Amino acid sequence: MNFMSAGAIHETAEIFARNNYGKVLFVIDEDAYQACGADGVLEPILENCVVSRFVGFELNPKLADVQRGIEISQELNPDVVIALGGGTAIDLGKLIGSLSVQSSTARDVIEGHAMINRNGPPLIAIPTTAGTGSEATHFAVAYVGEKKFSVAHESLLPDFSIIDPQLTYSLPPRITAATGLDALCQAIESVWAVGGTDESTGFATEAVGIAVANLVQAVNNPNAESRLAMCRASHLAGKAINISKTTAPHAISYALTSSYGIPHGIAVALTLSPMLAYNADVNDDDCADPRGAEFVRRKIATIVKLLRATSVREACETFTDIVSKIGCPCTLAEAGLTTSDQLQKIVSSVNLERMSNNPRKTTSSALIELLSKPLV
To answer: Are residues 131 and 258 in the same domain?
Structure first.
């Protein structure tokens, strides 16, 4: 069940009253909790509950934090998990709640050696950013070392999503920009994804249109309308990739984040424009989508139109202009990645599953060439 409106955080009281939750595992991004104002609403609700708080975790979910959270959850045996914060907090809430009741180890499930075979406690997801859309997906990511894994199971979809734009009002421009770019890139990738359907394309195209119209204002001169719009774009993009999954820009982004510390949304945006141009040149020989190269070209044309452009080149320029206007690097070179060794490291760590969802096939050498172009 989703609640999206200014003040939606107050729906939490009704959820608790209706379900008689007594023991609560609270996964909290502490800085976000104090800054966004949710504490004034949630603390009175939790007064009569037994609450274990999971805090102090690193940005981007790490195996060690998942394991630490599982120990807390197993000791409490919660009736419900609340996850409040950005994508990291929500993904940790998903993983901790679910993996705490599995017979296999967290590492085995995360690395794909074991399956989720039972449902964890109900999850209330309360995002404080407008970007990841994690509250709308049945995925959760975790890093083991520098390697990023994605865990997928229907039970990971939150039971309740509280999407309150007022919780994003305190976000600084840099985080608003990075998370907003994540939403925009997710939506664009979903349009061209091999796994896309009519339903996911509907969610994705609406998300792109909303983000293109509102992201720059939400970063540079935010108001209530642009904040709500970006929350909606993020949620729709999450619903889109929940069906289609992501593609090449996300696959390439992981090394940019884990090895070079580039925030996730910015890392994805760095290769979105080059990949748009690359996918536009799809032909029958290198098309990965069984619906054919002409089908993919129609999808690219849809993206061009959504970016308010009349050609692929102009669409790429439009996207780059949005990135520039919100103060983010537009190329790998601007992000400080200029050597062939760095490019090789990025390409060698690409997530092959997500690359297979890209509509145009590629190779390591093609990726190196593609990523090198902006560096010239």
So the answer is: no
